[in-house]
Structures are given as structure tokens and as C-alpha cells.
Amino acid sequence: MKQTLLFLLVALSTSVFAQNDPNLGIIPAPVSVTKGGGDFRFDPETIILVDSPDNRAVQFFKAYLKKAGYVNTFVDVNRVDRKNYSLKNTVSLTTNFKGDLPGEGYKLQITGQQIILEGRGAGMFYGIQTLIQLMHGSSPAYANIPCAVIKDYPRFSYRGMHLDVARHFFDVDFIKKYLDLMAAYKLNNFHWHLTDDQGWRIEIKKYPKLTEVGSMRAQTKVGRATGGDSDLYDNTPYGGFYTQEQVREIIHYAEDRYINIIPEIEMPGHSLAAIAAYPELSCDPTKTYKVGETWGVSQDVLCPTEETFKMLTDILREVLELFPGKYIHIGGDECPKFAWKKSDFCRQLISEQNLSDENGLQSYFIGRIEKFVNAQGRQIIGWDEILEGGLAPNATVMSWRGEAGGIAAAQLGHDVIMTPGSAGLYFDHAQSKSSQEPLSIGGYAPLAKTYSYDPVPASLTPDQQKHIIGVQANVWTEYMATPAKVEYMILPRMLALSEIAWTSKENKNYKNFSQERVSKHLARLDSAGYDYRVPIAYGAEDTTITGNQFNVLFIPPVDGAKIYYTLDGYIPRETDLEYKTPLLFMVPEHKNIHLKTITITPSGKRSIAGDIRMEN
Ligand code: ACM
Fold this sequence. Notes:
By secondary structure, the protein is of the alpha/beta class. Helices cover 28% and strands 21% of the residues. It folds into two domains: 32-152, Chitobiase, domain 2; 158-508, Glycosidases (TIM Barrel). The chain has 17 helices and 26 strands. The strands form six sheets. The protein has an eight-stranded parallel barrel with strand order 8-9-14-15-16-17-18-19, surrounded by five helices. α2 runs parallel beside α3 (122-135), α4 runs parallel beside α6 (244-255) and α8 (306-322) crosses α11 (358-375). The longest helix is centred in the middle third of the chain and has 18 residues, at 358-375. Residues 1-18 have low confidence and may be disordered. Bound molecules: acetamide (ACM).
């Protein structure tokens, strides 16, 4: 006879969690949070005292408060006599404090009487992001902010999000919305993938055909490009690009949020859009080329002729003129050598330059570009293929094919940004194995996998580890045709990225992150108009359990969301039973109960169905 089995799938309720959250709901988790007791009451009388009113962080806070319906006065402390105001009910944003803070660090002290935020530059900005997170969830113009002392600074100096605007184009407003999200989560590098086989998206004055021809494709593949979908195209022209004026506007917007932009101009592969505009860039200018209409890797690549280098350096000159940052990304990934092998010119060049083979030629190509970029006082970043055939002397390597390239580059003394697709940092990968997930390139990168990634390989020596300057998630948009789909794919995984990039290893805790903090943030994103993947309710993940008695307890994955369930195998809807309190099921011998759940957020977003089989 079977023993009675009591299954407690999840043991604690959300309200208990909320009170105990050591991180006060903040994402990414700070270095240290010392809780006081009680709250600071932020109300319309609260005065904001500032010692650097023109500071971008102060300006950001002012704009935020106004937009959120707060009505507070800002006072420049340099212009008033200290005797004339009380510190009671004030928020001091101060850059003028004793001692130093770590780079990008801040200190936030909240008592019942006043708030003091100390920080400079980016540090002040990040302190403000933390303060804004603590102000959430209150009525307009009022907020209860828990008393605490927070000391904080990042683990890595490079905290990146990438966006491919070549496969699908995203307009200026969406790029700003993307930057807003990055800023809120203390991410500081936006890797803007501006060119690829399927589109050239940045205006270059000297070569107008790059956008006239290269920004438009005649049609786009429907469904998955590989793996059995029919050979169907949408028969609809598609295109878009950013003018230099728009690029400047976005750079400025990013700077106001302490975000550096790294433009990527792909070479020598992934360049079909440029070749379609200027066939003389290819090894066979007699062929006709068209901007890519399907996904994958094009065999047609840039030919390493003097004409190509002239055009590329002209293009880069305009790009460097626009973008003030230290880095420019030159791609370097997935360059098939087929066209070079067929080319007499390439064979001769390999011989003239004493190169090993076509890999050596790729290395020669990147080396020449690096020399030019370095001569302009900047640095290149390349995908890890730039290691093949010899690494350009000053290049930073972005390791995407696992960590091997990053490890090899760090061992050679090069800086490295970790972005391995195999470790949950490719946000074009599916967020679960369910067939209910929307179309994606495949793969499997659930939130927990992203969260568990540590960018510093244990195999490196401490000195080599210092070359791991940070981490980034990549967003390739073959299967993301809309802003909403991009948001669905990056959220909530971007929150995990922010914690990998910012929070010390010791302070990471997946249960606290996912069950106590993410649910609050998703509720805010819900009301702020962002799309996101609604996680399955905690405790409702697909599973089969055996026994004869089951006690089932769920935690909503989004604050304020409702969980509905069915016992008949159908996917639940809002017309089904609502989960309110733990459920008890008795299953007769040789029978089973099929419990399906769905979560629906206040704005109507739905999770996929979770599926629990209880068998006896
Ligand atoms: C890449 O995903 N091809 C860098």
C-alpha cells in the first residue's frame, strides 16, 4: 500500500518573502544593504537639495519626478544659506563628500528624517536608479522609502546589451525605450549592430547607396530559415535606416544615461547589404547581388582589395566622427572563405603577404582595420573569430562561441567581454522548452540559466582574470519583427544579466532574485507599458509527481497577477477556476490528475501553461 505523501511544492508565501528580502527589491542586488526601521515619507513638501544642479544624474531625477507626477522643489545648496533651511524632509544629492567611493559607486542613507545620496558621475546616476526603485509602488506624489544604508558599486566595468537592427529595424523611439531599460538596470554599454547581410542601417554621406540600396530588402523569409519550414517569403519590401542626425540624437540620449554606444560595422563577412550597394567590394563584381532576404551566413563577403580598404576606412572615419566612445566593433565573425579561395587576387595576396592561408588573410584584413582605428585613437572589438590566423595586437575579444575564445584571448593579455550563447546570454534563444513559446532561433536559455552564469573562468590565473572586463547579452532579431517581441525576449532575462554584470558573486541568490524581486519589477514593467515573458507561477512548472495526496501551493510570478487552473487537460483561461489558497488533491489508485495553470497579469499578459501531473 502506498504511503500518504504530502507534496509541498513551495513552502513560503510571497508576503513573508517581501518582508524578508535582504535586497529591498533592488535589481541588481547592491553590495550591501543595512536595513533601518521605518520609512522616509517622500511627499510634496520634500525638498531636493543638490550641489551640482547641471549634473546629468540630477537632471535625470528631476525629469523622472516630473513625469511620474511628483511636484518637488529642487534647491541649489550653493545659492542658499545653510542656516535658512532645515534638513528635515530633504533628499540631498551630493557630489561633495569626504573620501572616495569605488568607480561608479554610491552611498545612499535613508532615515526617517532625510535621505543623503553620495556619488559622482555615473555613481550618482546609479544611486538615483536605486532610489527610484525604492520609490515605486506608492500613490502619485507620495512614496514610502524604507530606512536603510546602501553601499554599492559594480563587479564589472563593461555591462552590455546588444541589439541587431539589421535583421529587423527598430526606430529611434524604440532605441530610446531600450536605453531607458538599460539605464534602470545599471547597464552601461549599448552594442548597436548596424550592418549585416539583410540591411545597412546607418547613413554614410560619402557612400549614399549603402542606405539607398543596402537598407532595403525586397522581401523577408517567413518562418524559420532552416530546419524544414517551407520556402515561403512575405513578398513585402522591408527597410529602414538611421540618419546621422538621428544617430547623434541617440548618442546624446544614451550619454544622459551614462550609456556608451559601441557601433558595429560588420566585416569582412555579414556584408551582403554593402556588397549589393557596391558590388566592387566583392571578389566578383560581375555578379549581381541583392540584400539578404533569408537568415544564415552569406558566402559573399568583402574582398581584401585596396578599393575595399579605402571604402571601409572612409566609412569608419564617418562612424568615428559620430561616436565619441573608445570602442568600435568591426564584427569579424562567420566569414566563409569560399569567395576568397576562388579568387586569384586573394591567392596572390596570401603569397605576397606571406600569409598561411585564408585564415591568415582574415587576420590581415582585421589587422589593417585595427591599425587604422588605432591611428584615430580608438580601439577595436571583434567577435572571437578574430583570433583565427593571429589576433590583432590591441583588439578586445567578444567571446560568443562559448568561453574558449575569451580564455585564449585573456591568456594572450587581451581584454575580453564574455557573451557565450551556450551560457544563456543569447536572448534570441527560447526561454523554455515548451512548444507554446513563440518562434525563435531555438536553443534553450531560461532565466535561471542566464542568472547562473559567471563571466570569469576559473581556469584563468588572477592576472588573466583581470582581462575579463565584463559581460553582455546579444539580441539577434531574425525572429523578432516587432518591439514587443524584442521586449518579450529580453525580459525578464535582462534583469538576470544586470545582476551577473553588477552584483558580486557572493550576493547572488536565484531564489531571492526570481521569487522576491523579479515579480515586483515585472509588475512595474507591466504598468510602464513594456512587454515581457510572464514566467509560469512558481510551483507550477511542468512536472510529474507520484503519490495519493498532494498539497499544491503557487506563488504569482508577477505581483498582482492572477493564476487560473484546470483539471481537465485544457489550457486555462480567465473563465476557469482562480487559484487563491493552497489546493489539496486526493488521487485514487491507478488514476491521475492533470493540473494546468496559467498566469494573467493586471494588463492581460499571459504566461504559457504550466503542467503538473499527479499520479497514483
Ligand atoms: C554571432 O552570433 N555570429 C556573433
